[in-house]
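Request:
Um, any thoughts?
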Amino acid sequence: MTKLIDFRTNPSKYNHWHVEYNGPVASLIMDVNEDAGLFEGYQLKLNSYDLGVDIELNDVVQRMRFEHPEVKVVVMKSGKEKVFCAGANIRMLGGAAHSHKVNFCKFTNETRNAFEAAEQESGQKYVAAVKGACAGGGYELALACNYIMLTDDAQSSVSLPEVPLLAVLPGTGGLTRVTDKRKVRRDLADIFCSTEEGVKGKRAQDWRLVDEVIANSKFDATVAERAAQFAAELSKGDDRQGITLGDLDRKIDENGNVTYSLVEVAIDRDARSATITLHGPSDDAPRDMAAFHAQGDQAYLLRLAREFEDAILHLRLNEMELGLWVFKTQGDPERLLAHEKLLADNADHWLANEVRHFWKRTLKRVDVTSRSLVALVEHGSC
């Protein structure tokens, strides 16, 4: 797998997801194009996913927060008959290098953590509406939602069949969320994770594997009713105006050096290192949050976070031989502090809140990246 993986995308490029907006409720529909895998050699059948599917999901979650703050409930559902999601594509995993599998699981974990935390951080509740088989990573996708609804029919079940089928543990938070989040009894969790057929209907609810089981004939109506109920319960204001996240401008030269407007990545192949330089602001901080909002995705701290995140993801997946990352900054520290102070002083403003949480998620990506990380504080640092 030597293809350059690009984490930059937008809704016009999606192959696997589409979103329907209806006021405070959005329907996030997983309809994976089986012939649009990120690499050759496999088909994404039964709504199984590879990294490309999750790159789009990550983009959806990010845009939901910044472009659609009016949304209070996101209903995740399948666009295919008789299957919700079959999890990570087995042929893709079989053909992938170990390093790719590690970084694939890391990225999918981060994406699920992001939308799982959206209710507490952004007032956006994710609801899984499960129709059909929901297996492995598909159930882990549902587990990361804040509420799981399962239709009661012969095809619909939830399962974590990795141990009996593949002799591996679930890699995207399944075991932890079953026991620690959903509080499933340990003996039941053992049975659940060691049988491949999964659990259906009332038993799934009795075991706390799902929150609600609904007759198939009433499922769609009940999902809509529950989404409206959750939207009414959330206290977020309805007058928020989102901002558009434009495409990032990035240049990569023949040596692999990467240049954005505020971030530079210098590659030293002999030393197997990357030096990441973050530039401070060239302009004074906006006078207030109205001015910050007017700048949209060009607001300094938001633009810097987006470029920094893309650089991290690019290096993780495309430059695996670079074992040392060196972080530098350049700029006026007083001017930078003024930009940060604006967000700190307006933490209750929805956009300031989103930018601060975005920085938290980005720095967590740095924290769990499997590289040697060095920060240089030098003359001229900000």
Q: What stands out?
A: Residues 128 and 148 are 5 Å apart (CA to CA).
